[in-house]
Amino acid sequence: MGGGTVTGGRPEGALPELPEVEITRRHLEAVLSGRVLESLSLTHERTARHNASPDEVMTRLQGRRVMAVGRRGKFLEITLDDGQTMVTHLGMSGRWAIDADETIPHTHFVARLDDGRTVSFIDPRTFGFVAVYDDEDLAGSGLARVGPDAWADPPDVDGLAQSLRGRTAPIKALLLDQTPIAGLGNIYADEVLFRAGIHPLTPGGSLDAVQLGSVLGSVQDVLAEAISNGGTTLDDLAYLLPDGNAGENMMSLDVYGRKGEPCPRCGSPISRIVVRSRSTHFCPTCQAGP
DNA sequence: AACGATCCCTGTTGGC
DNA sequence: TGCCAACAGGGATCGT
Questions:
Q1: Would the pLDDT of A270 be above 90?
Q2: Phi and psi, residue A196, nearest 5°
Q3: pLDDT tens digits, residue range A138-187?
Q4: A16 catalytic, yes or no?
Q5: Is the CB of A6 under 7 A from strand C?
Q6: Between A91 and A15, whose confidence is greater?
Q7: In the structure, how far is the CA atom of residue A47 from the C1' atom of nucleotide C4, in angstroms?
Q8: What positions of strand B are covered by protein, i.e. any atom < 7 Å from a CB?
Q9: Which one is catalytic: A26, A167, A278, A284?
Q10: B16 C1' to A287 CA distance, Å
Q11: Which CATH class is domain A18-145?
C-alpha cells in the first residue's frame, strides 16, 4: 500500500486522469444537478488558493443552484444559476465522495444540499482545489489554457498535426501538456504510446500522419477501456470512486508500473526512463527509439 | 515562443 | 526497531 511510491517495481497511489475525472463527473452530476448548495464548509486554505480565501468561496457558493456538471480535460466545471462556475481539480490525490463520513482525514470541503445529501472533497496532498469563478476569472484561469478534450472533443489528425508542428519536445511531454490534447496524465500517456508503438522520446513534431492517427486511435481505446473499468485504482486506500468503490483498470495497464516485466506483445522487459521529471514506461522493442 | 527546471505536499518506503 | 531521506506527480511559475 502507499501513495506514490514504488514497491517491487510497481508504483502505487492515485493518479486521477480523464477516466477517473469523468467517472467522478457522472457521480456528481447525478447528485448535484438541480440541487441548491445550502451550507458549505471549506477548511483548508490551499484548497481555496485560486480565490482570495476559503470564506470567499463559501460565500459565493452559498445558496446557488447547480445547473450542470461538465468536464474539460481533468478539470470539472460546475455551472451555477447565477452565471458563476465552480471549478475543481483532483490534483494528485483528490477525490469527491457522496454522503461520506465528514471526519475522514483530509476532508477539506463539504457541501450540504437542499435534499440533505452531502458531497465532500478529500485531498491529502492538496494538489487539488475548489474554486469559484465569474466569466472574467474563468478566462484567466488554468481551465482557459486547456486544449480540446481527449474524450469528448478530440482533435483530428490535421488538428493534432497543426498543434505539434515544429515541436521538438518529446511526445510524452506534449501528451502531458494538456494544450494539444487534454486529459491524459502519466499513466494513460504511457499506455497510449505503447499501443501506438511510438517511443516516448520521439520529438512531437516529427510524427507523421499515420503515427498521429495511431496516437489518436489509441487515446480512444485506452480511455474507453479505462472508463468502462471504472478507472484505475493502484492502491485500495487511495483513489476511490465517489461511491467508495475502487476502479478495476489496473489489470488492463500494459506498461505503466511494469518495469522489468515482459511486454504483453513481444515479451521484452519493459523499460523505465524519466521524461520531464515523470516516470515513463515503454517497450524498447515495440516502441523503437527515435 | 518553446522548453525545461523548480516548487508545492504528504504517505509510504527503503536504507542504514 | 526506528529514524529519515527519497519518491511519486499536475499544474503554476519562472528562467533561458
A1: yes
A2: -85, -10
A3: 999 999 999 999 999 999 999 999 999 999 999 999 999 999 999 999 99
A4: yes
A5: yes
A6: A91
A7: 28
A8: 2-14
A9: A278
A10: 39
A11: alpha beta
Identity of residue A83: G
Distance between CA A268 and CA A252 in Å, rounded? 18
Specify which residue's alpha carbon is closest to the C1' of nucleotide B7: A127
A159 is written with which cell numbers? Answer: 488538428
| pLDDT above 90 coverage of chain A, percent | 83
Do the bridges between strand A118-122 and strand A66-72 make them parallel or antiparallel, or are there none, so unpaired? unpaired
Catalytic residue from among A17, A20, A22, A191: A17
A165 touches strand B (CB under 7 A): no
Pick the CATH number of A157-282 from 3.40.50.720, 1.10.8.50, 1.10.357.10, 3.90.1720.10: 1.10.8.50
pLDDT of res. A289: 79
List C-alpha distances in Å: A119 to A90, A101, A232, A245.
14, 10, 22, 15
Domain spans, chain A: 18-145, 157-282
Closest CA to A260 of A11, A1, A4, A3: A11
Identify the residues numbered 74 to 103 in chain A whose C-beta atom is closer than 7 Å to any atom of strand C. 74-75, 89, 91-93
pTM, to two decimals:
0.92
* pLDDT band at residue A9 under the 50/70/90 scheme: very low
Q: Which three cell numbers stand for residue A262?
A: 515482459
Q: Closest nucleotide to residue A143 (Cα to C1')?
A: C11
Residue A203 CA and nucleotide C15 C1' are separated, in Å, by 23
